[in-house]
Amino acid sequence: RPEIPQTLKSIVIQLYLQAFSRNEIASRTRISQGAVSNIIAAEIQNDYSQNGASLLSPPLPHLLLPLLKM
Questions:
Q1: H runs (alpha helix) in 1-70
Q2: Which of 31, 1, 61 is nearest to 13 (CA)?
Q3: CB 33 within 8 A of CB 16
Q4: Is a pLDDT exceeding 90 seen at residue 49?
Q5: What CA–CA distance (Å, rounded) separates 8 from 31?
Q6: Distance (Å, rounded) from C-alpha 39 to C-alpha 32?
Q7: What is the pLDDT of residues 14-47, one digit of tens each?
Q8: Which residues contact 9 (CB under 8 A, 6 or more apart)?
Q9: In 10 A of CB 27, how many CB atoms?
Q10: Does position 68 have pLDDT exceeding 60, yes or no?
Q11: How far, CA to CA in Å, does 4 sit from each of 13, 18, 24, 25, 52?
Q12: Does residue 7 or residue 45 have the better pLDDT?
């Protein structure tokens, strides 16, 4: 499967930060819902590993769990 371009990953993160749902982000970017979840999860993990915290994490971590389980 082809790699998702970084520019598209950035768009996914921008939409996530604007509070769009995973399904809406997938629809707008024309990538799978699973790919959207993976991009967001990877970016959060990357933030934690680099900074010890993530600017992308919601104030309440349980808000992210439904997104990752969808």
A1: 6-17, 22-29, 33-51, 65-69
A2: 31
A3: no
A4: no
A5: 9
A6: 11
A7: 999 888 999 999 999 999 999 999 999 998 887 7
A8: 39, 43
A9: 13
A10: no
A11: 13, 21, 18, 14, 26
A12: 7
- pTM score: 0.72
Cα–Cα distance, 52 to 36 (Å, whole number): 23
Rounded to 10°, the helix 33-51/22-29 angle is 110
Percent of the chain scored above 90 by pLDDT? 50
- Both tokens assigned to 2: 């082809």
CB 28 within 8 A of CB 15: yes
d(CA 63, CA 70): 12
Considering only CA atoms, which of 42, 4, 1 is closest in space to residue 26? 4
